[in-house]
Amino acid sequence: MTSLTKTLTILGTAAIVAAAGAEPLHTIGDNANAQSLTPPTHFADGKVNHQLNPDDPFVFTPYSEFPKDAVPVIVAGDPFGTPPDSVANRLDPNVISSQYAGTAQLLVAGSGLCSATPVANRYVVSAGHCVDFDSNGTNDIGNNIRITFNVSGNNSTVIFPSGIVAVTVHPDYTGFGNPNVNDDLIVIELANDLPADIPLYPIYRGSLSSAHQVHLVGYGTTGDAINGYLPGSASVNTKRSGRNNTDRGFFADDEFSGSTELFQYDFDNWQFGGLGNKIETTVGGGDSGGPAYIDVNGQLQLYGVNTYTSGAAPSFGSQGGGILINGYLDFLDSVIVTVPGAFNLLSPVCGAMDQTTTTTLNWDDSGRADTYEVTIATDAGLSNVIHSQIGLIDSEYSIPGGVLDPCDSYFWSVSAVNDEGAVVANNAVCAFDTGLTGDINLDGIVDTADLGGLIGAFGSPGPFGDINGDGIVDTADLGALIGNFLQTCN
Q1: Is CATH 3.30.565.10 the classification given to domain 438-490?
Q2: What CATH fold (topology level) applies to the domain 6-335?
Q3: Are 380 and 432 in contact (CB under 8 A)?
Q4: How far apart are CA 464 and CA 349, in angstroms?
Q5: 453 Rama class: left (phi>0) / alpha (psi -120 to 50) / beta
């Protein structure tokens, strides 16, 4: 990224505004001019920034004022370089086959634009200053964010504020440049799973290296290193990409936690190294929250979140960077819950009596569960397991015949499972007692009521009356009932 030019998005157009001064970027050595788009609630002359309130009439902000957070920028190289580069070269198609297809666009509070990355079915990661307009470290807009995915064409998936459960700001974030640029992260939790066609980008958990190449992706105003930014080129459906090396190093452990928290790169002239004129890129003008991906064995993972620039963007030699995901794993893992959701065992209820030996177990559906695992034991600690079943798709399971004995006590539990782990039901383990074989109405005695019920179900697949659990009510079940006629477990 470069020194962040202030950009105002107005009905699909963008007006470039002169960059204002910013707090020094602490602990970044020569980068004392780091800037980002962090618009205030009130301007210097006391006027209200009406763009912060989407219910207010639209008010055009004069260029002399600090506008609202603007669109992301992917900057091309030298149009006269070797090979020549152009704005059109950086366009990424809105097709499902694109490796960047899942990169999202955020419309913040009705007018501000940022980018974001889906890292799990219900979680999107972006920058904290996208929602912090007065740079005091707090969320100023709540859930007032619209998220757009252009996976298979324009606006293929749009999530409105009502579909957002929470926007969690990193607890140590104090505002951009207030006093530093660390901890500039948010996690957006969605109410429902994302559609299956939206690619997810796992969080990078590997080692750091100055040789790492990052893919920078974003929406909005573009330009090139010779002519500067191109006003009016922003669109919520226009995504651009480029790459850079993290050759400026890693910095800024502001809390002395032992974890490096920022990454940085520079924008190299095609004549002096870099990745080449048609590849090397920088960002600016509002690429807030946009992803810096890294390729790990053919899979893109979220390496960083673009948040700052320093130098004279989009000139060659400027620097950019952002939040290093690797330094914030504790925070992300505490907020992003990808294991199956909580659920309860339903029936037989805990303490149920006189259950059949082929009773059906039922439990709640668990959100994000792929399969379920049932365990049956003779003790509450489940150390003496007599039967288990894995890979169940439905939230019920009929115990096969021959597993349980009549007039005995058993304990059962269910775990919901997906690729991220397993979760045991809230009520963990439930106990039930089996009744006497043939007591199909579970009243504690084998009598004429059971005989009548079995005869009425004769020839059917059960489960009522199918005493031996072989899938049909027949003479074998009738024989088992008659063998215990007028008997009880006592």
Answers
A1: no
A2: Thrombin, subunit H (2.40.10)
A3: no
A4: 18
A5: alpha
